[in-house]
Fold each of these.
Amino acid sequence: MTDPPGLPHDGGALVRPFVGIGGPMTDPEPAALSDTAVRPYLVTSGRAAGEAELPLEAQVVVTPQGRGARQWLTFEYRDIVSLCDEPLAVAEIAARLSLHLGVTRVLVGDLKEHGIVTTYAPEADFDVDTIMRVINGLRLRN
Amino acid sequence: MGSDFATEQTAAPQAPRRRPPVPVKILVAGGFGVGKTTAVTTISEIAPLTTEAAMTTIGVTVDDGSMIPGKTTTTVAMDFGRVTIDESVKLYVFGTPGQDRFGFMWSDLAQGALGALVIVDDRRIDDCYAAVDYFEKLGLPFVVAVNRFDGVPGRDLDTIRWALAVAPTVPVIEFDARYFASVRDAVLVLLEEALARARARRSDALQAPVQPAVEG
């Protein structure tokens, strides 16, 4: 069995990172979930997949067809699409919408699957030119 | 009229949509209260953002008496900032969360990172051991940056280098997390390290075509 890192085994007793999603509802520690009233993964229907795939800094941007689809979207999906007319990092979306990072990844993954957004992130090591551009750009800042 | 606007109308038929900027990520690590958040705040062009993330820590559970070493996922707040270099590149600076008492897995953060700035308070040098260990094991370029935030002359860099026992190739520098130029220069030292690595990699692998990014 190959679980993605950080995800609990089914029925494993030790780790319950996404408390309240399909687990037994006997957890007596709502206080442990910070001060938000809504359990973070409620909006993803408990899905935590895709978490390991999308980098925090991956740029998310709405596709042309996604622009047209905005009016059909609800809640968080719509919020994300509204933010991403210009490319925005996954972590920025999470911060701006006060969403858990893992939740944001799942939602962005959904939007991507439906062609509403595209994501863009370096796949492997950075090339020399990119690093040079960052160096030169940063040097000009005061 | 027409000629001035013609280029606009027929602009770049081969590239109908501009590619999103390449996000370049660096990490700011170190012990608790050494100035990570200050450094992120200082260099960021936006007010630093905070997001909640799940972190997997490996620790020995001592509170239930079972002494079972296991993974625990906790939710932590993570600060990060951004510097827009130009239309095509954005630099993201992520402060690594946690006090690192039990060891940690930052794989999520470190994945795809260009390198890390390990901030050291020279009164508590050992606070950064966990970060140094981690980046050494990972093979990620890092720079040890001693935060001289109080102006008090502290231990000299040679002593700190000795205490940390980092490789001679790892830069050990001092900086002040409160000043932009100082943080910028520290980041530049890190970027030069990363650049040297990238150059070495390129000359190693001249045959293999580079595929820097994927769009999907």
Note: Chain B has one domain: 20-203.
Amino acid sequence: MSEPTLAARQLEKTYGEDATLVHAVRHVDFEVEPGEVVLIMGPSGSGKTTLLSMLGAMLRPTSGEVLVNGVDIAAVPEARLPKLRATTFGFVFQDFNLLGALTALENVELALNLAGTSGRTARERAEELLARLGLAGRLTFRPDQLSGGEKQRVAIARALANQPPVILADEPTANLDSKIGHEIARLLRAIATEEQRAVVMVSHDSRLKEVADRVVWLEDGVFRDLDDMTTDPVCGMSVHSEGAPHLQAEEGILYFCSRACRDEYAAASVSGRPPTASDVNIPNEA
Amino acid sequence: MVPVARRMLFTDRRRAVLGVVGVAIALVMVLALDGIFAGTTRQVSRYIDTSPADVFVSQEGVRTIHMAISAIPARVVDRVSKVRGVAWAEPVLFASDALRAAAGRRASYVIGYQPGGRGGPQTLVEGRPPETGEMVIDDSVARALDINVGDEVEVLGRSWRVSGLTTGMTSIVNTSVYVTFDDLAQTLGSRDVASYILIGTGADPQSVADRVAVIPGVEAQTRPRFSAEERTVVKEMSTDLLSLMSLAALLVGLAVIGLVLYATIISRLRDIGVMKAIGLGRLGLTRFVLAQALWTIGTALPLAVAVTFGIGAVVAALAPDIDLVVESASLLRAGAGAVLVGAIGVISPLIKVWRVDPATVFRRAS
């Protein structure tokens, strides 16, 4: 087993104190190998974004370490963090987060500028990256002239500009239709494999499981064992069995995301037909 | 390098135009005030500047016409005439009062000169030089107060008939009128006294002035020196007021620059968060905001200069008495003032961008 590109050791983040103390992330241990794609899933409010922010050197952990190629970035002085982010991480966002005032080419070129590459070198590298991602004909287009898939490919080109060892993707397929979302997922997979980059994706989109080497479930700031995961038969949400509302049915113990789903299921069972997600108007992925 | 500051500033064209125009208006106020002031001070010394005299002699200790009273014994004229290098010497009398006509009045320098001499109006656009009981006035005042040649006007408590019109001797502050030396002396009740002595030289004016200055009780200055002294006294009288008005204009500019940059920053907080997330540090952010300020000022300043020149042309056509002169020193002052207010104006936006949390990139756009 090779040395992990990215590792979190006993990573913890709390907000507030005393009565208002909130544990957003609790003692998380986590490793990503070069070329590995890890998908972090979990319900809203589970701490995914906080974890991603800490992994990406945008948020200081309360305690613990974030190691990139063995270097603890949580201990790096504040003034050095921007440059570290520019050279160490490539970010891909749900909302693409391209700068609307710049063209596709300039968006990528800017990332290179921020890492210290400028002039013709930066321009050629940006052109090469965009061409590689099939955007050679869109170099001078502004984000509002691009489709969702094109925007996300520009964002990926920007993320790859400085050849970072780690790509952090926050809901990379959420604003895309299924076909384009699938393409983006495969692209991230290919980048990990071909360029040996560590890719961490945070998403609700279970379709991303097919490109991930590993899926971890984050709930209440803690990684849960996926073997203990089950699906709420009412709303379809993934639920960790520990402490979840449940009831004994003919087919065994059923776990629910909430008491409301359990009660709904129980009431429907009495009437003869257990409800499903299509009956109760609860979104599959809250 | 990608010109991200300029792109972000000018992407929202309406906001950019409003900002640039706002700053330009503030700078136009500064430049126009400076220009009117420069034009006025230039006009104030017009009598001296257009005089054929090379040296002006005044009472010892008196170095100006404006805000001064000079009295030189008439006999000094003869003595001055005999100084080596003096080609001619002529006395003039000077008083100040309001010229009154049916349509209004105007502050005036009253200059008494010898008929046919060099101390009178240098050009006559209408009529003839004054004789006893007559005066020549400026055509601009004649138009403004609806005075024609042959009309009666009142100055120094008596009536004068307008014999002719000269031109270019009226400023926003006052005008010059010309009467005969003896007439003015009689009106003032002064005998054997001149206010100033005008000297034409056949040699170096400064050498002549130095030689004349040896005569007891007189001050002798070359025309450029006398003119500069005249402008200085006017400037000194007006500097505080002008400084206050310029400061007010610059404060308007400061508010505009600050608001424009702040509004731009506020509307681009997410973009700034993205830039911070992908590696823009505090120094880069500072450069980013300063570049936006410089672009705003750099675009507004030439616009302001062009508009000020345009205003100058319009003013010259509509109000010839007002001379608006844009001097290079004024441009430098306005530019420096704009950079200064720009530097102050960026403080608040700068603090705002420094505080932007890069992790905002993970929040959903609304």
Note: The first helix of chain A runs from residue 48 to 55.
Amino acid sequence: MSLWIPESETTSTDNFGAFTPADVIFDFGGPRTFTLIALDGSLLLAHQCDEEDGQAGFLVTPVTADRIRHLKAGDAGIYDTLNQEQLWYVVVGETERPRVAYRIAFGDVPAECLPDPTVTLKKTAAKSSPASGPVPDSPLALILKANGPRIGELSVPTSVVKATASGAYSSLKRIVDHLSRDSKWGTMSADWWKQFYDLPAHGFKAASFEIRFGWPTPREESAKATDDEEQSRQQIIQEISRMLEAGIKWCADPNPDTLPGVDREEGRVILEAIEALSPPQSGSYIEEFHVGGGLIRLSRPVVLTKATRKQIKLRLDSERSPTAEDILVAGVIEKVDRGLQQLTVRRVTQSVLLGKTSTSGGNKNGLFPEYEFAYEEEYSEQVLDALENESKVYLFGRSRPTGMYTLLQLLKPPSPQTKNPDNPPK
Amino acid sequence: MFPEDWPVGCPPEEATDANGTYFLLIGSDPPNPDGKDADARSKCEKKGGDFCNDCDCCGISVFPNIHDARAQYHFNRRWCSEKLAKRIWCFVASASLQPAHGVVRVIGGEVETHTNWWPQKDLDVKARCGLFRGCEPTVM
């Protein structure tokens, strides 16, 4: 890979002076985004976008002090700040002094050399007003439009309505369930978390069926949110937006060797969320979903097709196979944390670890340790029923990095009359 | 002992002895001193300006766990550009830092656990790079 060099003609580097930072806006291993004072006295913004063989490439544009304030506060993005008519590309050498400069158009810059259109400085974004989301200029969080040759103004089957609504619901819920298990958000009620996936529908369009979802709004009982809650709320919206965008970008160039997101677990969650947003492969009405709204602010239209869903499924299948550590546990659910949606299984009589090794006999006394599972809301009723009845159940789960398992299936033993086969009532 | 040319009061009094495993984003496997891995100071010095007198400019960004190092990579990729991130932060390596290696302090930022490590004077960039092992790609 070599340093990007524009095809346009070079221009003088004189006005950039020694390229000395006046105010550093982003520093990581050295100043990456900073202002500098040009020799003619104008304020410029320099943003590093490339580096190779001891040379670094910077996008440089005039900027106002007000814009810098907004950039630092997290309510202006670096992409929009650079997207100006007057733009230069300056190459600096080993000495960090300008070697050559080009006058360029923003559209000439390769996509791989540009920042993400939605990124802002997160550390200060939390200070933004509670009413603002990641894209405060958008009145809607998510727009999902189902297209297909048989969907028309007066011919929207209920199955299309259901698939569109449940696609949005399931996709966001998958992400929110993942986020809610991170202890950094503190203890929030299940109802509080629900606002992020049970979005208010603000409108419908039937020509090609479309649902327009508004931003998450606190439910009535939690309307008087504390500052901390509001800050968390904004951060969670940012996280949802980031994860959805990462998934959509992966789908545009699906590499079977990679996953979107920051780690493998998050990658799986992201793909499952985008899978839910894609048209069902079995249905005959919906050919594609057009996805938009403030949660997803990519520069190009986002269209998810049945092929998208198939690609994701193939990737998830390969992820789920041999290396996954799945477990089957037979025991009694003795403890449930409804807020965290976690359960503890004790009085374990059987435990089979699939994938790597198998165990079936427990320790020398035939006893097994207790197991902890995290479960999703769809299992709540079954879990609470099993807790109340103290009945033996079979739990199928997948290991998580924390040592806990994710509940994938919960089954009762075949004889419903036996309340507790391991410890029958006297 | 820390370099005499660092600003007065640097490292800060609040910094504590390094003691534990830390993760570093780097551009080559193994870490390359010539590639400026584990060397933020020289870049700042060459650029000059007031930032050169900022104590943070003398430190090296590390993270207490690989998840947070990757989260920082993800942010850098979005903020700077995909090309730059893939070039200079494409690997993550770990080191067991001891008090003899210097002091650390959480400075936060885009990732809450973002920590500055101020290495001891006798630990030049080559020695620093030698501490970090177990390189693996930042993006799986």
Note: The two ends of chain A are 75 Å apart (CA to CA).
Amino acid sequence: MNLAWLDAFLIFGLFEVMMFIGLALLLHLQLGLARIANFGVVGFWGLGMYAFGVSYVRVDWPFGDPWQFLVCALIATLVAGLAGLVVGWYIADLDIDGALVGTLGFATAVAILATTEQELTGGALGMGGLGFPYDIGTVKENELVWLLVTTGVVGAILFFVWQVHRSPFGRLLIAVGANEPLARSLGKRTFRAKIGLFVVASAAMGLLGALFGVMVRFLDIGNLGVEITLAAMVGLVLGGTARVWGAVVGIVLTVGLFDIVVQSYLPLPREWYTQALPVLREAAFGLALMVVLLFRPLGVLGEMRRDRLMKKLHGR
Amino acid sequence: MDLVTQSVVIGLTQNAPLVLAAIGFYLLYRLTGLINVAYAETVTLGAYFGMWANTTFDLDFFTVLLPAGAMAGLVSVATYLLVFRPAKQRNVGMLEVIIISFGLSIFLRHALQFVFGYPVRFFDVPPPDTIQVLGIGVSSFRLLALASVGVLALLLYWFIQRSRLGLQIRALASDESLAQASGIRPLAVTVLIWFLAGLAGGLAGAFYGVGSSVAPLLGWRLFLPILLVVLVGRAWGLGGVITVGVATGVLLAGATLQFGQVLYAQLLIILIFLAILKMRARRLAAVEGVAV
């Protein structure tokens, strides 16, 4: 396969867009429907990444790829889901402050453990030894296939989120976000719904972390910064927290714009790429988060379809 | 030398600025009910302003403290007038305001790198003397910092709890409309609180910065401990925040000595405080009869 026309940066940029769409879709379930601000997205994602890396590199499996990859990805998903169970239980009966401190505390704990447990994670030196579970030719070809695999996973997440919107569970999450005490007084198991939401969303975030680990093939604690949470959150908020497609539109407008258009196609001075551009990217994301929530809190796509329908029916 | 004595001496001298930062954060939290994530950058900016004044005008550390704190206070007021006040006027929900403060935090942290540069910076101060306190060598500089933080914390405590303006601040925090009816000017008092909070945070940042280095993540790394101290200590008012802050500093030092690794100590503190908050919430839920 001749891929000379395809830029390696473009493949990685598209991979990042896909991964952040997945994270933003899962955050949409938490923030957009249940109105739980998960400031620890990077914690679940990072836990999945390291659980995958440690099980893939440190364990002597009796079988090779692709089974090794599949088993390790499953472990990453289960570990992140288990963490979601604990964090979900922790924040289920707490207010906004409790959710913030719980999720932020969890992300900090993951970053600390990834740094201190050097024998497992490599600590500040990082951990190599990861690779694609196949070899079809050049690095570029392997990366392109991995981009397609990730696109498939994110497509499945999109389908799942779409289905949740139309399910009784989705309606319960919306009720939790709108008025939790009322939903509880009507006999709805709101705590259980929140815990379930965290388990599923965290497990999928962990899987996305594992996919990222394969793509970069080297795990670095520098990846566990707040930038991951910020990118998912700013994309979702810009697109619209209440809409499924908000995550997709927002991430394309933010991560897509910066990591593909600006990084690859704008004729910028070479020295900008090392420090100025990443700093500018984060500053712009922070500013976008503020401006959107101040002036257009429902984002580009606006409110939910069902809310529009209700207004149409009831005139308010 | 026993662990307790070492923990107390090291904890108090190293982590005293945490108390100051927690007081500032508590003031805002008490008034607005808002977890202002951007407070982390107030701490960072205090360190940067202090370092800038110190290295640019060749001033000694204690001379730059006040301007550094005042500049951080002014930035804090500016964030209120430009971001948080418009958000309140637009009836933006509490969850969204917290996310706005998160965005502001990220924006300030990265924007300041365009102003002060990307590399880690340092204060230009002479090497400190070592003084023996209960058999433990402590730098003269840290002792002065402890004394300064102690005086500033007491002054802030007195101002909030005993002065007339402090009474107005507490009245406004309790009931804005009632305070307004009593002749208190909400805007002036609110601006004063944001300034005082910024001042306290900025001073804490300057103390932390001179003790180590000045970097964009300085305030963010302190944010979770500050938040936990305030959320745990708030039940007992400002005095509770100060007490929990002091206890946290000592516990952090003790756990670091025990584990030989500051990160494990931080992890332990996070877990203990999260457990306290959870137990408190469950007790409250049990009292209110909410099924968990």
Note: The CA atoms of residues 49 and 232 of chain A lie 17 Å apart.
